[in-house]
Design a protein that fits this description.
The protein is about 25% helix and about 30% strand. It contains 6 helices and 11 strands. A hairpin with a 4-residue loop joins strand 10 and strand 11. The protein is globular and about 65 Å long.
Length: about 290
């Protein structure tokens, strides 16, 4: 027994040493955030995302930021050959609704078809759209490519009001242990159709009555309710590339919310295959 206890202590110490050594041997995840375009404070939000991800993960976050605030913002990195090769995952946080060049958009999609994971945030859902995009697109159609990558088609949103977020799939590694919450004023994006996406969370919003232009609101007007999928996963292309999307994230205060940043970083771990079935980061990837 006197000999056994020192040996046991030595074995435990050795196990801890090798576990710590394995952690330090893990290379940081390379994350690229692409941010810019219309309607949002991307100058602040890309920094909030970078800081939040690096505080939670063993990751190096690069940012391709374009200060162009129009719906035609483009990004030079997409025009480079093998533009995604240096990164483990791409975070699409752009708002480029009127960028409609099929070759430009095709170059983005080719990287994801080839296996590069993506995390899509908020207005990324309303980017790169053309043709009759307000109607359900047909799989394989000229204007369906971006929606097929997302796995869900959205075309608009209601007013800024709080959204009650409910995690509908509580067993997924991304959502395990996460609690439902109510946002500050946010935009609830519609769902025109779910293509191949698998819902993780829904959003419920009370919409106050609003008079049409030039008309007076009736005294008995009542609010309406709206419900949409607000977070989902998808497998895209022949390699079944892992894709995560959430429509939440209009306001900087929401992007700064620890619950939002936890959701995004868990999505990064899932898309890159570094989260276990219990929702925990694999050794070396969490902080």
């Amino acid at each position: 027994m006197r000999l056994f206890l020192p040996l046991l202590t030595l074995a435990v110490s050795a196990a801890l040493f090798f576990a710590q050594a394995a952690d330090t041997a893990v290379k940081p995840l390379r994350v690229l955030i692409v941010a810019g375009g219309c309607c949002h404070d991307y100058e602040k939000q890309h920094q909030v995302l970078k800081d939040g991800i690096e505080a939670r993960l063993n990751a190096i976050v690069d940012v391709a930021y374009n200060p162009d605030k129009s719906t035609k913002a483009t990004f030079a990195i997409y025009k480079a050959k093998d533009w995604a090769k240096d990164f483990d995952v791409i975070v699409h946080d752009e708002c480029s609704a009127d960028v409609t060049d099929p070759a430009y958009v095709g170059a983005i999609l080719e990287a994801h078809k080839a296996g590069k994971p993506a995390v899509n945030l908020h207005c990324a859902m309303h980017s790169y759209r053309w043709g009759n995009f307000r109607e359900p697109v047909q799989p394989g159609a000229d204007n369906a490519g971006w929606y097929e990558m997302l796995g869900l088609q959205s075309t608009g949103h209601g007013p800024q009001q709080p959204i009650d977020i409910t995690f509908t799939d509580k067993n997924h590694p991304i959502t395990q242990g996460m609690e439902d919450w109510t946002t500050i004023n946010e935009e609830l994006y519609n769902n025109v159709q779910i293509l191949t996406g698998k819902p993780l969370a829904s959003g419920h919003q009370i919409v106050p009555p609003k008079a049409k232009k030039g008309e007076t609101l009736p005294p008995d007007a009542k609010p309406t309710e709206a419900t949409s999928v607000v977070a989902w996963t998808n497998e895209y292309g022949p390699n079944k590339t892992r894709i995560f999307s959430t429509t939440i994230g209009h306001n900087t205060a929401t992007v700064s919310d620890a619950r939002y940043l936890d959701l995004v970083t868990r999505a990064i771990l899932w898309t890159t295959g570094h989260i276990n079935e219990n929702g925990k980061a694999e050794p070396g990837y969490g902080k």
